[in-house]
Amino acid sequence: MANEAGVVKSVTGGSARALNNATGEVRNLSVGDIVYQNEKIITDSADSKVTITQTDGKEITLIGKDTITLDQDTGNNQTVADISALQQAILNGTDLNALEETAAGGPQAGNAGGDGVSLGAASFAEGGHYSNISENFRNLNGSGRNFESPISSVGGYADGAAGTDVTTPVVPVTPAPTVTMLESEAKETKAAAGDEYLIYNIKLAEAKTTFNLNVAATSNNAGNDYSRNLEYSFDGGNTWQPLVDGKISANRPAPIQNIQVRIKVIDDDGRINGNQNEGVKAEDRGAAFGADDYGVYKNGVTLSVTDGNSASASATGNIIDNDDILTANKFLDGKHINTEDGEDTITINNGARNSTIDAGTNSDKIIMNNDTTIEQTNIIAGEGDDRIDMNNGVKFENSTIDAGVGGDTINVNAGAKVRNSTIYTKEGSDTTNINGGTVTSSEINLGNNTADKRDVVNVNSGSTLTDTVINGKNALGNDEINLKAGSVSHNIGINTGAGNDTINMSGKLMVDRDTDDILIKTGERNDTINIDGGEITGSRTRPAPYQNVPYQVQMETGTGDDTVNIKNRASLKDVSIITGTSGIPVGGNDTVNITDNSKLEHVNINLQRGTDTVNVKNATLIDVAIDSEDDSVDGINTVNVDNSSLDQTKIYTGDDNDIINIRNTIINDDKHGAYGTIIKGEGGSDTINIESSKIFGEKAYIDADSYGTSKAGNDILNIKDSTIDGIKRIYTGGGNDDIHITNSTISNVEDADDSFRSIGAGDGNDTMTLDGGTKIINTNIGMGAGNDTINIESGTILDRTIISGGTDNDTFKLGKGIDLSNNVKLDGGAGNDDTLQISENIDFSKVSNFEHLKLGADNESVDLKNLSIGDVLNITGNKDTVLKIDGDRSDHLSLKGFNNTPVSNHDGYDRYEGFDSYGNTISIDIKQGVAIDFY
Prior knowledge:
Layout: E1 4-12, E2 16-20, E3 26-28, E4 34-36, E5 39-43, E6 49-54, E7 59-63, E8 67-69, H1 83-92, H2 96-104, E9 123-126, E10 129-132, E11 146-151, E12 154-158, E13 178-183, E14 185-187, E15 196-219, E16 231-233, E17 241-242, E18 247-265, E19 280-284, E20 295-307, E21 312-320, E22 325-328, E23 332-333, E24 336-338, E25 345-348, E26 352-353, E27 356-358, E28 365-368, E29 373-375, E30 378-380, E31 387-390, E32 395-397, E33 400-402, E34 409-413, E35 417-419, E36 422-424, E37 431-435, E38 438-440, E39 443-445, E40 456-459, E41 464-466, E42 469-471, E43 480-483, E44 488-490, E45 493-495, E46 502-505, E47 508-510, E48 520-521, E49 528-532, E50 535-537, E51 553-556, E52 563-567, E53 571-579, E54 591-594, E55 599-607, E56 613-617, E57 620-627, E58 638-642, E59 645-647, E60 650-652, E61 659-663, E62 666-668, E63 678-680, E64 687-691, E65 694-696, E66 701-703, E67 716-720, E68 723-725, E69 729-731, E70 738-742, E71 745-747, E72 759-760, E73 767-770, E74 775-777, E75 781-782, E76 789-792, E77 797-799, E78 801-804, ...
Parallel strand pairs: 14-21, 22-25, 23-26, 24-27, 25-28, 26-29, 27-30, 28-31, 29-32, 30-33, 31-34, 32-35, 33-36, 34-37, 35-38, 36-39, 37-40, 38-41, 39-42, 40-43, 41-44, 42-45, 43-46, 44-47, 45-48, 46-49, 47-50, 48-51, 49-52, 50-53, 51-53, 52-54, 53-55, 54-56, 55-57, 56-58, 57-59, 57-60, 58-61, 59-62, ...
Antiparallel strand pairs: 1-4, 1-6, 2-3, 2-5, 5-8, 6-7, 9-10, 11-12, 13-15, 15-18, 15-20, 16-17, 16-18, 19-20, 20-21, 87-88, 88-89
């Protein structure tokens, strides 16, 4: 490893290099570099100066353009002149011939270039005096100059002057770099518009290959409107690289003189305190508006440059702030304000008329204050997340707010009044807050949002909306409208358009006139309407001749799977809810929930096409219609009523296989009402379940099908643990229906149109089962056409009842203990093979029109005693009808008035005959195997 000769202490002026004599390698020297023996130190220019601290602590200095080779003798005090000794000799006026020849060891000592060790244009400082040495090392007298006498201990040769002529010494100074502006001003602007820069040019005193610069940017303003990460360029701005630790260092193959530095302008957030009106106001723009604070503000940014000789320079550029404050204290009449881009704050303190107030792009704030009027004026917030405030006392009339693109917030605060105006939120996820203000005859337009944007309108407590429309029909996002508790809305319209929208109504909403825009509509996709404790009312003040037709609050959920929740003691009166769109046969799978002690009066719930569900729980319904009015067949409708009260309520489920469940409910119609409660499955195979409920009202009725129409289905009617009294009818209509009445009391049911169909099954092969505990009182049952079955189970009580099988071949099955004595009549009807099945002796005077008597069910033994000629005539109702009696070997039959011997047998039956009191022959066929006794 090469031996160290020293360390570079300083390098100023031109560059210094080290040449390895053995390898030919050349390297540039910087402060702190190690130099080695046998390296040649080379300086390039007249202003070069390099000082090397040797390993013994002494220094060697080369001044000007020169060379020196470091060898083992360089460190010898006899070889190289000690700088301090040389200075001292010059100051003392000593003849340098002896000193230099002795110190340098003759002309060839140290292998220095030229005539010896060149001191060049060096300056030596000592004791405040300067010596300027400009001769090569040799006998000074040989130059033919005269020796100048020392002045203040400084001596030297005079050049072309008398001995008394003294030349003042000059210290060589390296010129400082200069800094100028290439782009002296730049404005804060949005990133989308492209980056803006302040660009500075640093010019060195001369072109160099090696240099070091310290660069810093400062500003008197503490804002954040420029980047602290500076960049520089060596190629005129074609390419840029970042400064590291504030330094520009170069070691280049070719010299350069100009370096560019740029500072990126940042569009800082003017909403942060201190970031508006940054810098010094350079131009006043607010005089016309009474806005002393409005103008052009410039923030100076100074670039300081220091070179290796501590020489420095600087230049200042300006950033024009785009975040404005404009406080208009004058009345604005026909004025046009445009603050352009930036986060601006515009305050209107004294009103405006026929003006335009434009906050430009970025996120701005527009404030309207005091008891002022804004009329026929356009407020434009522009692009960005803006905020517009109308404060107490502001009257905003015949004017427009255009919130522009972005997530905007509009506040109509307490005491502010908007009239005949439009609030247009345009594009973006916007919020409009009515915070106790009043909006009249105006429109809140939600703009043309895409599906990923969401608008919110909050009508908060203390607010009033009158004759106003919230229009989102062109907004595709999932919007939300909130009419909050304590707010009042009068004759308003809401249209949320497409999207999964939500309307929350907890305040008071009233309608007392008809127009097309008074409509609550949610449009396409899956929407939700929540009526939470609110009061929604129409009006019955319509003038003649329509005084009996109320003004209704209209609600439509449009297409999609929608939900309407009516809860928390909500009150609805004269309201129409359509789960779809009126007049358009398109719907979805909708749900209406009416809960939590809510009360509905004069309300229509119209189920459009689709599979719809209505849930009524803990609610009161008066004059309510739940109606699948389009009689749709493309969806199953379900209506569940639980623990509720119904009065004059209609439930129509349409032409599909629908389900109606009524549990723990009281239906009690006002006898003075125009109509009663109607539970109707209409077309399709419907199921109606009535459980633990009470139904009263002379105009009420239950129809599984539409009575009197051709609509039919295989319906199921279950009545369990319930009481039904005084209603018009219970009817399942056409189709093969199943009626099952368990532990219930049905009384005083009478259909004035058809007394035998107070309970009716209609056409079809129907089945009716009266389970134990059931009471049928003063009510007739008519099964209609078809091969019907009537099961009267043990424990059933019949009182003042006629049960008719109707036409075709019907079957009556009586359990044990059935008492027919209390004005009961069992009539097989007009069939040719009606069957009466008994489990014990009964009073046959209570039955008629049966052609077939069956002794018990299978595996049941019946002992029928004293069947007389009169009994047979009662059963058949016709002397010419042969009664067929079925049984098996376990059954026993006692005949009275018949011959003991069969007159014939056929198909397993024996025929017996007898005579009535008129001498008519009465015949019966008894199944062979039945045990017979004759009396």
